[in-house]
Design a protein that fits this description.
Elements (H helix, E strand, L loop, with lengths): L24 E4 L3 E5 L3 E3 L2 E7 L2 E5 L11 E4 L5 E4 L2 E4 L3 E8 L4 E3 L1 E7 L21 E8 L2 E6 L5 E7 L2 E7 L5 E9 L8 E2 L7 E6 L22 E6 L13 E4 L7 E5 L4 E8 L2 E8 L8 E5 L10 E6 L7 E4 L2 H5 L8 E7 L2 E6 L8 E6 L4 E7 L6 H6 L9 E8 L2 E9 L7 E7 L2
Parallel strand pairs: 1-10, 2-11, 20-25
Antiparallel strand pairs: 1-4, 3-8, 4-5, 6-9, 7-8, 9-11, 12-33, 13-14, 14-15, 15-16, 17-18, 18-19, 19-20, 21-22, 22-23, 23-26, 24-25, 27-28, 28-29, 29-30, 31-32, 32-33
Length: 439
């Protein structure tokens, strides 16, 4: 498709003589076109002027736009139109229509925006770099053990922890001090599958809640994240000091009766990733975030012995919408190493990659693996450099004895953030937590 407007050649038959008023007219030259992400092309239109009883082709200047022609896009976040130019913004589809009060317009143009496969991945991070003091983005100090964290577009951090049967979420100042009271999510899970919608004006977060309770621990999903009662993926609005069950969440999503261990959103690239368990295997599901509400709904019943027992809850059924990707993930083959027991501590999605951190506090180093949406392992068990030098951890007061356990990973605006907890044995069960921002 050329950058100039497409024009029809030739003339139509003379208009009927009895017509009192004949308007100029504009239509699309074709029914569909393909644009690549980042590419800008002219809207393919035919503009014709009625002169001396016949239609004659002409050029139309969208810059001055004398007849106020509007080119409307059904999905301006996918394909925008400005001054007669279509710009591909992200993968997807949009329908363009024409409108004007002064000339006749007709037709529709189906635009498909594709990713240019010749373009390399936009994000590439050196995860082996050594730790320096200026990489400490959030010095939380001594806090009860963080399970995960995330950051919003204002640079504000949020931390998730667990307390017996409840997940807790709090906002944090940049010095690590808390802002207001914690939000309490009874039976809300371990807190590791926690993700903020980065660019939202209000604060929304995703987690994996429970719809029931297990008698041995009241619904805590850390040790057995795939228990049949842990089957709702929840979207909450952050409310400091509030208590909210999974069934009270702003929106709920159902995948299967095992739910998900991790739910992570990348609003920059319109992606949701879920790690679940089915058919005796671990699975990764990837969805377009903008499409999941096209799903039909399913009704589930609360089985909890106390709060809301027997209540019917409606959730979007993710099985009724098409996923971008689904693949079996042999995570033990990805995360198990000589110094690693295979404990997944963080999982996030960014653009077209999935990042997994694993390890325990006494391991030689935290390990990271990177997968694509086909399940290919692009990097396997790479040592995360900031966790390697135990003396540096002690020197920077991130650990008293060199122990360092990974607790969450997120990528925001091309910056990778890693959460860690270091032990202070003399302080009982309390931990020393921090967030590291890689360069």
């Amino acid at each position: 498709m050329s950058a100039a407007a497409f024009l029809l050649a030739g003339c139509d038959k003379p208009a009927p003589a009895e017509a009192e008023t004949v308007k100029d007219k504009m239509s699309f030259l074709q029914n569909e076109c393909v644009v690549f992400v980042g590419e800008e092309v002219a809207v393919p239109v035919s503009y014709q002027v009625f002169e001396r009883g016949v239609y004659v082709k002409a050029d139309y200047d969208f810059e001055t736009n004398p007849y106020g022609v509007t080119v409307n896009s059904s999905a301006p976040d996918v394909a925008s139109v400005t001054a007669g130019k279509i710009k591909g913004l992200k993968e997807g589809s949009a329908t363009l229509t024409l409108s004007s009060d002064k000339i006749s317009t007709s037709g529709q143009l189906a635009v498909t925006v594709k990713k240019n496969e010749d373009t390399p991945a936009s994000f590439n991070q050196d995860i082996t770099q050594a730790l320096t003091a200026d990489m400490i983005a959030l010095p939380l100090g001594r806090q009860d053990g963080m399970q995960s964290f995330d950051i919003d577009k204002r640079g504000q951090f949020y931390m998730s922890t667990e307390d017996n049967t409840s997940m807790l979420v709090c906002a944090l100042n940049k010095d690590g001090s808390r802002i207001g009271a914690e939000m309490v999510l009874p039976s809300g899970g371990h807190g590791d599958g926690f993700s903020i919608e980065y660019d939202a004006d209000d604060i929304y977060f995703w987690t994996c809640g429970t719809l029931g309770e297990r008698t041995e621990n009241g619904g805590y999903s850390g040790g057995k994240a795939n228990d049949p009662d842990v089957h709702l993926i929840c979207r909450h609005k952050f409310k400091a000091g509030a208590t909210e069950y999974a069934e009270d969440a702003l929106e709920r999503f159902y995948l299967n009766d095992n739910g998900a261990r991790f739910a992570d959103v990348d609003t920059e690239h319109d992606v949701l990733v879920l790690w679940t368990y089915e058919n005796n295997s671990d699975y990764i599901y990837v969805y377009k975030l903008s499409e999941i509400r096209n799903a039909t709904t399913v009704t589930k019943k609360v089985t909890r012995a106390s709060h809301n027992q027997g209540k019917d809850v409606t959730a979007y059924n993710l099985n009724s919408v098409k996923s971008i990707a689904k693949f079996s993930w042999k995570r033990k083959g990805v995360t198990t190493g000589e110094t690693n027991a295979g404990a997944v501590q963080g999982l996030c999605v960014y653009d077209d990659r999935i990042y997994v951190t694993s390890g325990a506090k006494n391991d030689e180093a935290t390990l990271m693996s990177v997968l694509d949406f086909n399940g290919n392992i692009l990097q396997k068990l790479v040592k995360v450099g900031v966790s390697v030098d135990k003396q540096q951890l002690i020197k920077l007061n991130l650990s008293s004895d060199g122990t360092f356990e990974p607790e969450g990973v997120h990528i925001r605006k091309g910056q990778m953030y890693l959460g860690f907890v270091g032990d202070y044995p003399t302080a009982g069960s309390r931990k020393h937590t921090c967030v590291i921002k890689l360069k």
